[in-house]
Amino acid sequence: MRRKPSRGFDPPHEGGITQCISRAPQTRFGFFREDAAALRQADIVGIPGAAPRRRRRALGTGAARGASTPLRRTEDRMNRSLVKVLSALLLPSAAAFAACGVPGESSTDGNSAIDDPPSAAAGPVPDGLPGALLASRSGVRRMTLHELESTIARHLFETVSAKEMLPADIRSPFDNDYTTQAISDALVRPLEVLSEQISSRLMKDVVRRDKVVGCVPNGVDDAKCFESFVTHFGRLMLRRPLEAEEVTSYVGAQAKANGDFYGGVDIVVRAMLQDPEFLYRIEVGTPVPGQPALVRLSDFEIASRLSFLMLGRGPDDALLDQAAAGKLHAPQQVRNAAADLLALPGGKAQVQRFFQLWMNYENPTQEKKLADAMRAETDALVGKVVIDDKRPWQDLFRSTETFVDDSMATIYGLPLPGSQATWVSYGATGRKGILSHGSLLAVGAKFGDTSPTQRGIWVRKQLLCQTITPPPGVPVTLPPLKEGDKACKKERYKVHAAPACVGCHALSDAVGFGLEQYDDKGKFRTTDNGRPDCLVDGEGEFKGGGTFNGPAALGDLLLKTGELSTCAVTQMQRFVGGRTLLDADDNASAKAISALQPGDFKLTDMVLNFVSSESFLHRKSIP
Amino acid sequence: MSQHLSRRNVIRGLGGIAITLPILESLTSSRTAHAAGEVPKKRFVSCFAGNSMGDIAKVDGGGGFVQPSTVGEKYEITTALKPLETHGVQSLVGMVTGLAISRSAGDPGSINAPAPNNFHGYTLPTQLAGCRLSGSESAPNTATTCDQTVAQDLKLRTLNIRVQPVEYRGGDGGGGRGRISFAKGKFVDPYVSPRTLFQSLFAGLPVGANVAVAPGAAAAVATRRSILDLVDGRTKRLMGKVSAADRQTLDQHYTLLRQLEQDVSGVDPVGSLACKRPGDPGADPGGDGSGASIGYSGETERAKVMVDLIALGFACDLFQSVAFQVTFSQVFVSAKRAVGIDTSKYGDEDRDIHEIGHQGKYPAEVRAQTLAWAIDPFARLVAKLRDTKDPDGTRVIDSTALTMCFEGGWEGDEAHSVKNMMVLYGGTAGGLKPKHVRAVGRHPAEVIHAAMKAVGSTSPLGDFSSTIEGM
Predict the structure, then answer these.
(1) Closest Cα to residue A325, out of A356, A300, A345?
(2) A323 or A485, which is more confident?
């Protein structure tokens, strides 16, 4: 099938530029060079423009799909056997199987469901979402420290700072890339210490302890209360109902506590905090017949995926109840649930976190108070545009107002808001949108000043998903300021005009110099820092896109390229899949989502499209 | 599960109930965890700091603030090498200078990549694993660093620690710049908190021969064992339900859990009475978060605690091969607060160590002072190991080989250089002879490999089977 090429930014074909820039996943025409095979496959499974989704009638009762009961397991086995028999009879090859569109359009674990109607907040699942065959490869994912802290806060009602004890997560730019996660002594042993500390504090705090236990024992040997605690707390921590033998195993802790009820609770809490199924997100799922390595996630695994993606923590009772009731199985059900999660305060915070990591303003490189004010400003804009006002996310680049406290207002030359940060108009300052924020203008600062090169690289890499790779063997150095050096900054950067350097630096520096009238805190300036004799004109060039002056104009240019929107989908694909290096299927999946949103779009719609695709409900295991 | 509780287990169960003794006092005894008369194991330390040299030797036309002008045992103590004098370890520390890394793709241990793009991440694996790098990858897929290679060869236990807790300037984990240990391309995360290191590895050590076991300690140990038994049993069962790749991940976790459980269940080592628990170091020095443009989190104090714990860990035989990272590649640590440099003299409120390495307005002597700050923990560790005795009466330093390499060399005014590099080495294991050796154009990995061989490691270090002669 043919798709209309997206408007793409034309990569320059001059000098060394083509050596150093790559545009994965897209070519200039908006296709994926390395993904041709995947696209062909995607076409086969009917991804964009496929036949309308079929509402599939339940083979079974459709009730309590996730519940682990003997009856339920028997039913599952029967349904799986039926699918296998039908597959063997009707689908002699994987291609034929795919051509039927089954993996891409329905449950494949023998639990096809009557889908729910769309909720008002979610809207219907659109046609053309990526199918199951485009599911991401994924492996065991350790909770990020942020996820660990948030989950502990939710289930144990305590704010802990795990990052002071456990190894930090690598940002690339997201913190959840499981391929960068290491398993080491520095994780396992401190986690044991941390679990002991958390439980010890819990045991001393009777109110919190009783909330976690959920019942009041009528004696030290109240087995019923203890089992109730194990069953409920275990479901929260392991994100699924415990099997009977697991309950027995944990209930055995009570005996080991020598008749001390809360000693038994202590053991369970510490063990659960170290349990591999708590620490790691493990998805077993159900194998899809005829598709080696492809599995359909269980409803509880979907609950986990959804909760970590939408809230940055493990699921709570409400979501697990939905899974238990079979309400997290079909795409529309998942979409409806996701929309509900987005409406929670945690949903908004998670969207803000996505932007913090993507645009690299989680920790602006300023002293803490100012950094906090910068982050608050940008978080506020993201929250308002994306969640509160439900506007297209591209409006982040068009906003004419901003949320500032006195420190930011001073930097921007705006009237001081007084005791509390507030929304103010940019007025006639020439600023517009998120690119005028101090948080983003602080990116890449070095030598006590801005770095046009680093700013340019950030725009290319983070906002447009390009990769700038200088040709090997080029011994270029940065131009540091030396004693007695009288050259202005722009003059010093002319060393980058050397033939071996200009290819890449023309792409980065020219963009960065267009932001030079804003210093590393975002303050407007017309001369180099401490050099009134060095005028800064703020003229920049976006190769292939035109010239510009200042962040407002750069925002307009980026919006025109269309690549900004495509990159947003790519970045979301990374965040959803927990992997920075996307493979062909990931790129094809992102492409399919992009195709549904050709112009401006709501970021929340994009997220809902991701989670209600069959690709989200499946995973490919790593060979 | 055995119900036997050794005295050591009982005391380990005490966990954080530490008797507050100054760490140094607890290290003074000559008795260790080894059986009396037992030949001590070899020990290996791979140390790294993210500084460049900042200068070249006088003989090469430089200021001579880093590399000595004289070779041999009685080499000149330069500004950068002052800590060797301060800690009295010149006779135990040598260095090889004039080292270089090739930029030709076919050469052993070469870097076929542009500079400075990601320069800071390139030299680390090239030196510590002796591997070749190209493209934009800073951590090769299959390489193994020297600390891991030595541990595999000699069946030693490892410890990986980093003094600088966060990268600053918006960074956090640091990727390849913040981790100096990996096996077959898989990174090993370091401990970054002295307090957590203490709580995880040292809080359970015996407090001394005459200290009564606290009431309830046996129960605490039993509880801990019960929990670990439950967790590792569940981990093992889970491994049977997942795919092969996932099983591999869980298996790593399981192996570490088993090791922890075995430690808790371990028996008292003979002669362990002097392997005493150190005093609780208390809360980690507070400081700047990852967003600080120029950060300081008390790295100077953190380093002192960590050095003490390494020496104690050797004495107690808790680990034998150590990766000890002082700073990240590209050091964003405050030169003013960490090193005490008066940056106002140069018109700056503050500057990080990396930028001082770049900026011509900071003279070579100042750049060398930042290097001395990074070398100080290394010198301090050598002194500690000199003063700690094995059961047979020998010094721990005599069964130890240490190396310390740095991010870059110096060439003209170029901080991002792979020429004129230097590697320090220390200890006398295997007949190492600490002195200044000039080896112009040789690879830093060859120095590290020589130290590895000195402790009995038989494997090459990446591309290198050769060593530097005369060490």
Answers:
(1) A300
(2) A323
